[in-house]
Amino acid sequence: MAKVTHRYAGSGTSRPAELAPGELVWARIINGLENPLATGKPRPVVLIEQQGWAWKTIGLTTNPRYRDGMPRIAIPDPMAVGLKRAGWIWSGRLCTTAGLDIDGHIGWIDADLAFEIAKLAGLAGPTIKPLLAAAREHHGSPVRPDLRVLPGGGS
Q: Could you report the per-residue pLDDT of 89-137, keeping only the tens digit for each?
């Protein structure tokens, strides 16, 4: 597994990214729609899937609403995944992030966040499996829901 050792000012981490699906990392993200002259700034993202020299990522934010006022999807347990405070999933659109723009390690996805991202981004089975494997490896098996509360879910 490759390691990234460079750091951006202000990322606040000294642990290099492991570059694996389900890892939360700092990455330089450029928002060309809102700021076409941007050079990018470090933001937390979830690594979803490697594609050659780049990664498909999902951005995270501390802003609970989109620009139009609609609510974003909350990160179910921010502390469990390595964040210091409440956060939200930026959007369901996967972003391509160059490997050189990925900085330090933040934490690991848990099952609840994996399911929220999968629903929002419409991820298929082959993409979801490594995320759930990372959640299981770093957080253990998720608590099974009590299916008796669902119609026909149990006796």
A: 999 999 999 999 999 999 999 999 999 999 999 999 899 999 999 999 9
Q: Which residue has the tokens 């139009």?
A: 68
Name the DSSP class of 153: S
Q: Please compute Rg for the chain using Cα positions.
A: 16
Q: Which pTM was predicted?
A: 0.81
Q: Residue 115 is inside which H or E element, if any?
A: helix 111-121
Residue 38: count of CB within 10 angstroms of its CB: 13
Q: Please enumerate, as own/partner, the contacts of 35-40 that have beta carbons within 8 Å and a separation of 24 or more.
A: 40/101
Q: Give mean pLDDT, residues 84-89.
A: 97
| Contact present, 88 and 61 (Cβ < 8 Å) | yes
108-138 as b/e: b if 16+ CB within 10 A = bbbbbbbbbbbebbebeeebbebbbebbeeb
Do the Cβ atoms of 107 and 83 come closer than 8 Å? yes
DSSP secondary structure letters along 64-113: -B-TTSPBPPBPS-GGGGT-SS--EE--S--EEEEGGGEEEEEEE--HHH
